[in-house]
């Protein structure tokens, strides 16, 4: 039991010293707010990576339970990606409909999840990949990405 405690204590202490990738200047951060940074309807988060030459995008969790990335240029907003969470979800033979009560959470383990009515209805399936802490931000090509503390991409929006 003492050995197990020492192993856990060592893992936690080495993770505590980690810092975010230098490109994590905005977006969602994994170790924020006791359990991960989150978006709830109708909030949005600006995503500006200094490497993208000032491209301005924002991620939002909408009242229709959809998680969307918008481009904002010349005064117009245009959706460039969404999690398709606006459709009905089939989980355990029940249908989860649009409630506006869900949230997107960047978890401490590196997994980005969409939770509606206390159920995960969408996820990046990136738990424990790379080295934490993690952030959700923009890539140099303005795609939504999750970066680990070494600035390695552990997930990116699929190409259209």
From TrEMBL:
Name of the protein described by the UniProt record: Aste57867_22758 protein
Cross-referenced Gene3D superfamilies: Bulb-type lectin domain
UniProt keywords, alphabetically: Signal
Organism: Aphanomyces stellatus
Stretch forming the signal peptide: 1-17
Annotated Bulb-type lectin domain residues: 44-159
């Amino acid at each position: 039991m003492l050995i197990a405690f020492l192993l856990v204590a060592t893992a936690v202490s080495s993770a505590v010293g980690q810092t975010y990738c230098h490109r994590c200047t905005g977006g969602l951060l994994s170790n924020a707010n006791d359990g991960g940074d989150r978006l709830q309807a109708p909030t949005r988060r600006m995503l500006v990576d200094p490497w993208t030459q000032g491209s301005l995008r924002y991620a939002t969790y909408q009242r229709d339970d959809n998680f969307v990335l918008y481009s904002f240029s010349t005064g117009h907003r245009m959706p460039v990606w969404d999690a398709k969470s606006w459709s009905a979800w089939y989980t355990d033979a029940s249908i989860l409909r649009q409630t506006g009560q869900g949230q997107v959470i960047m978890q401490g383990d590196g997994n980005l999840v969409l939770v509606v009515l206390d159920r995960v209805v969408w996820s990046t399936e990136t738990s424990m990949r790379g080295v934490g802490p993690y952030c959700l931000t923009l890539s140099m090509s303005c795609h939504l990405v999750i970066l680990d503390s070494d600035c390695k991409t552990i997930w990116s929006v699929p190409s259209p």
